[in-house]
Design goal:
This protein is mainly alpha-helical. The chain contains 36 helices and 4 strands. The longest helix has 35 residues.
């Protein structure tokens, strides 16, 4: 049995190595040399029987007929297998088909068996396994790899199908979270990239100057935060990298010249820096128009101009800043105004050139916008400084040098009259030339112009400033000169800052720079101020508010400017200021605390009344009376400033203290007018000496203790003594102090205590409410409102007549009493 089993087992022949062409076989020289040296050991190769080996491995050689029969048998087997998998099924209730021969043919459908449908891959695998012993190792490996890839693809497809079937809202939420995390990661990566590039540039700018382009490319990102960070980081880099001089690119001739490596390196650094700076400025100008990046772009522009005003492209930066100086955005407007103020105050950085350019640009903008700008655009001029002593030091030093040279020459001529050598003269001439060249180079580097240039720039700035101021005054005069009956102003835009937005800063600037103005123009300026101060915001005909006319605070500013102009010129002009006193006297009645500025009123009281030493008695008395009525009508701050001014006037003018007397005739009639006219427009025609300061008696009962004490001290002033001392408190200080205390001060009221006592006595009963209608009727029956002095006199005459004839009144009452019952009976 064992022998038969061994015989049945067929040992497969070993596989032959893959056939290789003789052309592809390559032998090395070492192999050929080795074979030639050891031919004796290779004799057995020539004795090998190749035919026997081929029979054993490949088998006997087959004829064509044998191969044909094998293929035919294989085809039959395959057809049988296919037929076994297919089954013929006769459909039910199907009519047969009759052929031309007359035979009936029933249609059949071939159906694959379930096993064939389920396991087509298994059959293929079996065929593959049967044929595996025929394939080589390389072919087997390739087939194994393909099968693994196919299995992996099938697994992935199955997983995707499962995921699609099991999709829920949680999966969508997880996808959104993943997207957010990825966005945060990209944001952090870009931030880190910006930080790395910035650190590289700050550490060694000359070596890493090319990384500026990479930083600027990040600004093209779609995320707004990344763009803002990029702009700010590049700004910080430029502030540190930009040199302290203006870069001048080399010309073509200079580029053709041979230079050292250091010079080439510096040229490359300067050229790349200038290109990057230019592209950065272009991006800032583009981002400035977009509302998202407006504030960031303007911040970068302002900081660059403030930090490096000497560098290239400063004119473009200055035009951008001046264009936004009147922006509706408050943040941008403040940035631009602070930048221009710093340029005006720090002229050493740019030598004063930017000051002239900025003033010219602002003047052109005021002209183009027809004086309709924000007041901050003109308030910037207040920070300009004009130096009157330009070139004095240089002149003094030059004079000293001349005197020293003259003294030396005289001494030398007296001591030694020998001529100097020609060599010494040539040396001195060479030294002087070298010094001049060095001084010229130093001036070009330090941006310090000569005294003549500085004086020329100051005259240009001053002319531009006064041109702007006079243009504003002329525009206001033109608008006031139009018909006051027209209520709608068609010349102004609806989005403008007001009818006269630039007038207040214009007047402040005129008050400050009047010392620099020529005397020939001051007369015209005073005429303008008189016309502006005399214009009222309420027309006399229509009694309606006109927006073109000036307000009370603006008219007060005109009066202040006129007095400041006269004082700055040391009263050298023969100008009558009586019109301005008249306007102040009338404006005290038109003042309203919520509408007008109290600081301007307090300043006008100080400058026009307190500081003026030469005053007429009639005018001073009129102002005293008007200020007393003013203090009685308004709040704490206004009334305190008026009382301080009143006290100063009474201390200076002893004759005005007669108003404190309580005579039967209404005061000491020492003036030319015997009767007081409270509504007179001219203070000299008011007749204030014919009145009494009865307002002080009411002010002593004021709820504020400071005002009541001030009114008491004024009413107790002695008329006989000549008090020369003045109060240390000014109206401005009084207004500032009591305007702050207005909110914190709470007067003590005793009504709460009385009400609590009444409640305790009455047992906690509620107090009944008062009927305001009945109260008004009773007040009208017993009291009358005085509309004027004539009505006051009429009421006094009636009262005196009733006092003299009380019997007639009683008789009339007695006669009227019996009539009432008769009338009732008739009804």
């Amino acid at each position: 049995m064992g022998k038969s089993r061994r015989k049945e087992k067929a040992i497969p022949p070993p596989q032959l190595p893959p056939e290789v062409r003789e052309e592809e076989i390559e032998f090395s020289d070492e192999d050929v040399k080795f074979v030639e040296e050891n031919k004796e050991y290779a004799r057995f190769v020539s004795r090998i029987d190749t035919t026997a080996i081929n029979r054993q491995c490949v088998g006997e050689a087959k004829t064509v007929e044998d191969k044909y029969e094998e293929e035919r048998s294989k085809k039959k087997v395959n057809q049988e297998e296919k037929g076994s998998n297919e089954i013929q099924v006769d459909p039910v209730d199907v009519l047969p088909v009759k052929t031309l021969d007359g035979k009936l043919h029933y249609r059949t459908v071939t159906k694959k068996s379930k096993l064939a449908e389920a396991d087509p891959d298994e059959a293929e695998e079996e065929d593959v396994l049967e044929d595996e012993h025929i394939l080589n190792k390389s072919q087997r490996r390739a087939k194994a790899k393909k099968s693994k890839k196919d299995a992996k693809k099938q697994e992935k497809e199955v997983l995707e199908e499962i995921i699609q079937e099991e999709e829920t809202p949680q999966a969508a939420v997880l996808a959104e979270v993943k997207e957010e995390l990825s966005a945060e990661e990209t944001f952090e990566n870009k931030k880190n990239r910006l930080a790395e590039l910035g650190m590289l540039l700050l550490s060694d700018p000359e070596a890493n100057i090319r990384s500026l382009k990479a930083m600027l490319d990040i600004s093209k990102d779609e995320n707004a935060k990344i763009v803002k960070l990029c702009l700010l980081s590049v700004l910080a880099v430029f502030k540190d990298i930009i040199p302290g001089y203006r870069i001048r690119l080399p010309t073509d001739k200079e580029l053709e010249m041979k230079v050292s490596k250091d010079v080439k390196k510096t040229r490359f650094f300067e050229s790349t820096l200038l290109k990057a700076y230019k592209s950065y400025l272009q991006k800032l100008m583009a981002f400035e128009r977009q509302p998202v990046y407006n504030q960031v772009a303007n911040r970068c522009i302002c900081t660059l101009l403030d930090a490096k005003p000497h560098f290239n492209y400063r004119d473009n930066l200055l035009t951008a800043v001046v264009r936004n100086i009147s922006s509706p955005d408050e943040v941008v407007r403040r940035l631009c105004c602070t930048t221009i103020r710093s340029l005006f105050s720090n002229e050493g950085k740019h030598g004063g050139e930017l000051t002239v350019q900025a003033v010219r640009l602002i003047a052109d903008q005021v002209k183009s916008q027809n004086c309709q700008l924000h007041p901050n655009s003109i308030e910037v001029f207040m920070s300009i400084r004009f130096d009157e002593d330009i070139g004095k030091r240089d002149r003094e030093e030059a004079n000293k040098k001349k005197f020293k040279k003259n003294d030396k020459r005289n001494n030398q001529e007296e001591q030694n009259q020998v001529q100097e050598n020609e060599r010494k003269k040539s040396k001195r001439e060479m030294m002087s030339k070298i010094r001049d060249e060095v001084n010229a180079d130093y001036k070009g580097v330090t941006y310090e112009p000569d005294a003549m240039e500085r004086r020329k720039m100051q005259t240009e700035t001053l002319s531009a400033v006064f041109e702007t101021y006079f243009r504003i005054l002329r525009k206001t005069m033109y608008s006031i000169g139009e018909s006051s009956t027209e209520e709608d102003d068609t010349t102004l835009n609806p989005n403008a800052f007001g009818p006269h937005p630039l007038l207040a800063p214009c007047l402040d600037g005129l008050a400050k720079f009047t010392q620099q103005l020529d005397l020939d123009y001051i007369g015209d300026l005073m005429n303008y101020l008189k016309k502006l101060a005399s214009s009222s915001s309420v027309s006399t005909d229509s009694k309606k508010k006109n927006s073109k006319l000036l307000t009370v605070s603006e008219r007060l500013r005109c009066c202040l400017v006129a007095f400041k102009v006269m004082r700055s010129n040391l009263n050298a002009l023969n100008v009558d200021l009586q019109d301005f006193f008249v306007q102040l006297y009338n404006l005290l009645l038109e003042y309203r605390p919520g509408r007008d500025s109290g600081e301007v009123l307090a300043e006008s009281l100080k400058i026009m009344l307190c500081d003026d030493r030469h005053q007429d008695m009639q005018k001073a008395a009129a102002f005293v009376k008007r200020l007393a009525t003013f203090a009685l009508c308004f709040g704490c701050a206004e009334s305190m400033s008026a009382l301080v001014t009143l006290k100063i006037l009474l201390q200076r003018n002893v004759k005005c203290r007669n108003l404190l007397e309580n005579d039967a005739g209404g005061g000491s009639v020492s003036g030319s007018i015997a009767k007081y006219q409270p509504y007179a427009t001219d203070p000299n025609l008011s007749g204030a000496f014919a009145s009494v300061l009865w307002e002080l008696n009411l002010l002593t009962k004021h709820y504020h203790p400071a005002i009541s004490t001030m009114a008491g001290t004024i009413s107790n002033m002695n008329t006989s003594q000549n008090q020369t001392f003045l109060s240390a408190v000014t109206p401005q200080q009084a207004f500032a102090d009591y305007s702050l205390q207005k909110e914190s001060f709470e007067p003590k009221s005793e009504s709460r205590k009385l009400n609590n006592k009444r409640k305790r006595e009455s047992g906690g009963e509620d107090v009944p409410e008062i009927d305001m209608g009945e109260l008004r009727k009773k007040l009208k029956e017993n009291f009358t409102i005085l509309r004027g002095i004539k009505e006051d006199e009429r009421v006094r005459m009636e009262f005196e007549f009733r006092k003299k004839n009380p019997t007639k009144k009683q008789s009339n009452v007695a006669k009227k009493k019996p009539k009432s019952p008769k009338s009732k009976k008739r009804i």
